[in-house]
């Protein structure tokens, strides 16, 4: 079949639900889509509890049989082999960072040595933003014209005329700003001056033209650090376009891919991305607090990481325990300390499963699921608006449903086994993740929202009862 998911797209275009076509009955349409779904059988390999409609995989992905098996294997190795596991386990723990980096690389369009697992997103932002600020301050940044610092006169010490700025946006995940500000501060650069923040026009999205305009307006931007998708509205960014605009003005381009890695295919290599960070506990389904991951383009290998540690040392000589630090000539250099094996082990199984499904097919199904969801919301929920862009090219893996009583709605949904999350002030994020969600599940979620809003049962919940779920 050419495109098994076409009926979902047609439904959003108005041909299926409201448009009066043969499949205007959503239950029939969902059944047909599920029957033709080439990924349908993958759901059996995830452990979503019976009676739960899990729509929160953009916060914490569920366990899979494969992830639990790779975790069990490492636990057994720890029990049976003790310290020898570092070298004698199969495969040895020592190379876990590089090995799982290799497994992740195809999902982000990178060469194996450009990806490694290690640390957490926030720590990886610290070390990578720090590294690239150091490069700018050493006069080694991308070629640029006009700004005085082009010839290497950027120097630490708080001279606003020559200090490099970092361009971010106001809808970023807060931790990213905390880390970038700290890295500026640590180089004597005033973040209030040099953290340049692109504003949103609508409170939901960032217009890419505003990123370009900020670059044109400020010739001091040395690093553009943007998300691949916004955590609240789910807007997907055009990574290649941003990287190109950054490079044209002599800035590096780094990305936080937390909300796309494992859900949206990337081409970091072809797009010219300098570095990227992401987590593995969302769409990569490796478990709560699982290890982070990062990409550093090959052309930057050999730089000295801002946060250096022995695990980023050249592997062949790491155990010579020399005081002189020789960074690995790969993204592996940005590892810091001993990798948390038990927080990395599930990733092996969970990534295998995603690779078996195929990232391109997962993306196609994800778009179909969110097409179907948006079509149902348009058709059935007059008091709910969709805060996520409708164009596929600007839509990540979840849909932001906006309702004035979003917090109480999300609490009521949770009591009915529909796990979503609330993001202040008015957003319920619904994530029908492709590996384990059916079209019938999406319909059931909308049925629940409709019945809650029509009955008003959510009004029985105390305001601010649940907090952020
Ligand atoms: C977009 C984004 N960036 C950064 C973070 C922080 O990640 P960590 O707690 O792993 O450092 C999160 C956490 O959910 C996130 O969603």
UniProtKB/TrEMBL annotation:
<dbReference type="Pfam" id="PF22580">
    <property type="entry name" value="KYNU_C"/>
</dbReference>
<dbReference type="GO" id="GO:0030429">
    <property type="term" value="F:kynureninase activity"/>
</dbReference>
<dbReference type="GO" id="GO:0097053">
    <property type="term" value="P:L-kynurenine catabolic process"/>
</dbReference>
<dbReference type="GO" id="GO:0005737">
    <property type="term" value="C:cytoplasm"/>
</dbReference>
<dbReference type="GO" id="GO:0019441">
    <property type="term" value="P:L-tryptophan catabolic process to kynurenine"/>
</dbReference>
<comment type="pathway">
    <text>Amino-acid degradation; L-kynurenine degradation; L-alanine and anthranilate from L-kynurenine: step 1/1.</text>
</comment>
<comment type="subunit">
    <text>Homodimer.</text>
</comment>
<dbReference type="GO" id="GO:0043420">
    <property type="term" value="P:anthranilate metabolic process"/>
</dbReference>
<dbReference type="GO" id="GO:0030170">
    <property type="term" value="F:pyridoxal phosphate binding"/>
</dbReference>
<protein>
    <recommendedName>
        <fullName>Kynureninase</fullName>
        <ecNumber>3.7.1.3</ecNumber>
    </recommendedName>
</protein>
<comment type="function">
    <text>Catalyzes the cleavage of L-kynurenine (L-Kyn) and L-3-hydroxykynurenine (L-3OHKyn) into anthranilic acid (AA) and 3-hydroxyanthranilic acid (3-OHAA), respectively.</text>
</comment>
<keyword id="KW-0662">Pyridine nucleotide biosynthesis</keyword>
<dbReference type="InterPro" id="IPR015424">
    <property type="entry name" value="PyrdxlP-dep_Trfase"/>
</dbReference>
<feature type="region of interest" description="Disordered">
    <location>
        <begin position="1"/>
        <end position="20"/>
    </location>
</feature>
<comment type="pathway">
    <text>Cofactor biosynthesis; NAD(+) biosynthesis; quinolinate from L-kynurenine: step 2/3.</text>
</comment>
<dbReference type="InterPro" id="IPR015422">
    <property type="entry name" value="PyrdxlP-dep_Trfase_small"/>
</dbReference>
<keyword id="KW-0663">Pyridoxal phosphate</keyword>
<dbReference type="InterPro" id="IPR010111">
    <property type="entry name" value="Kynureninase"/>
</dbReference>
<dbReference type="GO" id="GO:0009435">
    <property type="term" value="P:NAD+ biosynthetic process"/>
</dbReference>
<dbReference type="InterPro" id="IPR015421">
    <property type="entry name" value="PyrdxlP-dep_Trfase_major"/>
</dbReference>
<keyword id="KW-0378">Hydrolase</keyword>
<comment type="similarity">
    <text>Belongs to the kynureninase family.</text>
</comment>
